[in-house]
Amino acid sequence: MAMNRIVRHALILAACAGFSAPGLAQDAEKKEVKETICFESRKGASEVTKREIRPGLPNVKCSPTTDAVLWYGDPYEDTVPMGKVPLLDKIPEGHAVVKPRTEKLSLASTCTLACHNGVTPPGFPKHKKPIPIPTMEAMVPDVKDLQHGRGRIWCLDCHHPTRRDKLVDNFGDPVSLDQPQLLCGKCHGDKLRDWRDGIHGKRIGEFASTGKKRWFVCTECHNPHDVQNGAHQRGFTQLKPEPPPQLPAGMKDARHEKVHPIAH
Amino acid sequence: MSIDKRPLGEPALPASADPAQAVPKATRRDFLKAGGMLSLSSLMGTAALMAQTDDAKATIEWAEHFQKNYRLMSDEEKNEARIRLERRHSAEYGRKVTVDISGAQPGVLMGYALNVRKCIGCRRCVKACVEENNQSRGSRPGERIEWIQVLRMERGEFSEERMNHGYPEGLGIQVGGNAYTPVGQVLEGQFHYTPEAVPEKDATYMPIACMQCEKPPCVKVCPVRTTYREADGPVVIDYNWCIGCRMCMGACPYWARRMNVTKPVLPKDEMNPVTHYLGNRPRMRGVVEKCHWCLQRTRQGRYPACVEVCPVGARKFGNLLDPDSEVSLILARKNVFRLKAELNTFPKFFYFYD
Ligand code: SF4
User: Fold this and answer.
1) Residue identifier of the C-alpha nearest atom 1 of ligand 1
2) A220-255 per-position pLDDT tens digit
3) How many angstroms separate the Cα of A184 from the Cα of each of A73, A151, B333?
4) What does residue B169 show for φ and ψ, rounded to 5 degrees?
């Protein structure tokens, strides 16, 4: 996992260096030293850079111990309208917004430039059976032993065959990376229904049922590639907890809590 | 406090939640008036005099000391109190502090639901609450106040070795060897857990804070009636009238209330300047505080801070009177329970699981 991330960063860096003037790149590096970048729901998914909206009002406050976002000054920062979701029709136009993910998943642009450029390569199989693809397995080790679906699904059940910056729906039509719910709901219909009704998943902003909310989409909280691996509990990647509460005055540690709490 | 002088046998007036309709009783001010020592006008006169002596802080403190219980204030008096507080806190914290006094909206009854199956015990809600609500955050004993507690509970396991043991041995077992296996035991777990990563395999988590009861025991015991239930649901405290007797802390079955035993430590740059009179405005030493569902946010239509920050979306908030709201749908569709329901406190905070 960690190695994979390093590789990805290297790729992104390489891509950036290719496109921007060297002077600009240096400036960006200097700024990055001071920047506080915090993660929102899970590490590796959506991130925010801390800044001031108005003097004294930050866009987010972050945890000094875990780099997690702890407080939102502006819940709608950098969001765009969510787009249509079937049966989600009671919400007024523009009141459901999401943070775009396409840009964040910037590896997609590398993929689409080099190989998956929208053209079906010669010899592309007509059937839908999984085929081992050594180049892909080398680049994205996650796919080698994909646990999601327990061997009953593979890459092209979720990813568009020729447009790698898109997911795919039941009819083979592309689905935006910003709207993974249209893909995940293919199998997880009960979760889609609860999510649409606001019972599953996360929203921030106004609490009224017709209020303006930023909706968190599936992949902002769950990593679909390793959602069923051992390090995960209840669908989430484990993360470091915030520090515990203050001990009562005079108490040196909290060992008393671990002692058998039921009297015999 | 006041002695009931009703003649025996005369029926008591019905109890009312609205103090304006309650049986008139002696107040602090009445006491002063009756003593013939001071009147409101002379107080104001003194205040004006002190303002001329340029001691603005003293003036404000003077007026604050003699203000009414928030529920008895007229709109005008509330506004005066607001201006006083804004002035004092802005000076103290070196930035513009606003104190909201907006009341309950008609048609809104706030409710909360928490998915215990989803909670991973990360304590982000706890810290978000502190960022939002201006709690004390010092390092000496009693200086760090948190309103939400996250309880870790063992999943537990049964063992084969113990299955035929227990006591009394050999005489027909009354207490089996697996009797004290602490599986999912409620409310006797750990608050100070510090694993490398959560969620742990062998644990479940249960965050606890004020349940905003419909029949709040804390409100019943408050001798100065400074804590009460607002019309839209939350149980609030007028910190100015709190005498710090801690009766409410003893009465609350959910350990929701905290006492400022020291002068609260709130650094200027960490202070949240958007406050509500009954909510997160800075507190003083010797008063009790607790969760109020971020009144400064929810009265303006925004989600509470803990809801917004929970990384797994375990926390849900909404209007119980709106059948389309998140909480209403959860009550309609999911398996829901109230904590310590047997105490008949009727919380508006519900736990549920998928
Ligand atoms: S933030 Fe959410 S997951 Fe974390 S402890 Fe609080 S309720 Fe549980």
Assistant:
1) B310
2) 999 888 877 655 677 788 899 999 999 988 888 888
3) 30, 17, 22
4) -65, 135
Query: Can you list the domains of chain B with their CATH numbers?
Result: 38-98 (no CATH), 110-158+192-353 (3.30.70.20)
**ipTM entry:** 0.82
Residue A102 has pLDDT above 70, yes or no: yes
Q: Where does residue B253 fall: left (phi above 0), alpha (psi -120 to 50 degrees), or beta otherwise?
A: alpha
Q: Which atom of ligand 1 is nearest to the CA of B148?
A: 6
A207–B329 CB contact, under 8 Å: no
Enumerate the β-bridge partners of residue A52. Answer: A58
Which one-letter amino acid corresponds to residue B74? Answer: S
Query: Which atom of ligand 1 lies closest to the CA of B118?
Result: 3
Confidence (pTM): 0.83
Nearest-Å Rg of the Cα atoms of chain A is 22
Neighbours of B223 (CB within 10 A): 10
Kindly determine whether residue B330 and residue A199, on different chains, have CB atoms separated by under 8 Å: yes
Per-residue tokens: B10: 């005369």
Residues with CB under 6 A from ligand 1: B 119-125, 150, 205, 207, 310, 312, 314-315
Q: Would you call B154 an interface residue with chain A, using a CB distance cutoff of 8 Å?
A: no
Q: Give residue for tokens 């005369």.
A: B10
Q: Rounded to whole angstroms, how far apart are CA atoms B317 and B132?
A: 17
pLDDT for residue B9:
42
Q: How confident is the model at residue A27 (pLDDT cuts 50, 70, 90)?
A: very low
Q: E strands along B177-319, which residues? A: 203-208, 227-229, 235-237, 258-259, 274-276, 288-289, 315-319
- From chain B residues 1-60, the ones with a CB under 8 A of any chain A CB are none
In which element (H, E) is residue B353 found?
Answer: strand B349-353
A115-131 residue pLDDT tens: 777 777 777 788 888 88
Considering only CA atoms, which residue is closest to atom 2 of ligand 1?
A: B310
Q: Mean pLDDT across the stretch A5-23?
A: 41
Cβ–Cβ gap A221/B312 under 8 Å: yes
Residues from chain B contacting residue A204 (CB–CB below 8 Å) = 303, 307-308
